[in-house]
């Protein structure tokens, strides 16, 4: 840098330092010190005691671009405010403020979110992902991308991705031999057809709110062995159970039987 004439050396040094600082941060301003995550973050899930709770689409936190920092957000139904202070780039301390008091359906998630989003939280920022972790290892996983809209139950091609055990309520991915083979579509009148992984099937269902009751399955009669045959057997038992409770989050459908067994399936594309 050329030294301008008639300027004191100390002033030149100060200008040089300011220019270097502007270049190092791209000349941007307003980004929060500390974790640098100003803006709205959409909650994807909570991990509490080894259990994962999927977030409703309304759950989010907005960090402002100036201090003192007053975060705002939504627990999934009720809105909230919170004071946030920073401990460098690695942690924040959250002091809950006000909240609305509406009666909400998903109280388990709301209660867990409110309990986690308080006190000192470790911050892990990775591109468009932000994870806040408590001292006991519980975590709030968030994304800067808004959640995808829920796929419709009907007129959607669903591909089974995992089966849920009734005893442990743990979802287990399908074995490689069966992956992508079990698919089904539910039409507007709840007529259901597809593949159990080996044999094709059809059934007529009736609906009552968030519950589906499937009638007898009509299937082809090919012999199915190994992992594919085992998946087919479990799916046949599941569709024969009644009623099945269904829920959709984004592009994921969950069907759960009264004994806790179930399946998860992902939306492929709208059925013709």
Sequence-ordered SSE layout with sheet pairings:
Layout lengths: L8 H16 L14 E10 L2 E4 L5 E4 L5 E6 L4 E9 L3 E9 L7 H10 L2 E8 L2 E5 L5 E5 L12 E9 L6 E3 L8 E5 L4 E6 L3 E9 L2 E4 L3 E2 L6 H15 L3 E6 L2 E5 L5 E9 L2
Antiparallel strand pairs: 1-2, 1-3, 1-9, 3-4, 4-5, 5-6, 6-7, 7-8, 8-9, 10-11, 10-12, 10-19, 12-13, 13-14, 14-15, 14-16, 15-17, 17-18, 18-19
Q: What's the order of the H and E elements?
A: HEEEEEEHEEEEEEEEEEHEEE
Strand order within the widest beta sheet: 1-3-4-5-6-7-8-9
Percent strand: 35-45%
The biggest beta sheet is recorded as: 8 strands, antiparallel, barrel
Topology-level CATH name of the largest domain: Lipocalin
How many individual β-strands?
19
Separation of the first and last Cα atoms: 66 Å
The dominant shape is elongated
Care to describe what's here?
A hairpin with a 4-residue loop joins strand 4 (69-74) and strand 5. This protein has an eight-stranded antiparallel barrel. The protein has helices at residues 9-24, 107-116, 226-240; strands at 39-48, 51-54, 60-63, 69-74, 79-87, 91-99, 119-126, 129-133, 139-143, 156-164, 171-173, 182-186, 191-196, 200-208, 211-214, 218-219, 244-249, 252-256, 262-270. Mean pLDDT is 84; it is low at 1-34. The N and C termini lie far apart (66 Å). The protein has 272 residues and is of the alpha+beta class. The longest helix has 16 residues, at 9-24. The protein has two domains: 39-143, Lipocalin (Beta Barrel); 156-270, Lipocalin (Beta Barrel), CATH 2.40.128.270.
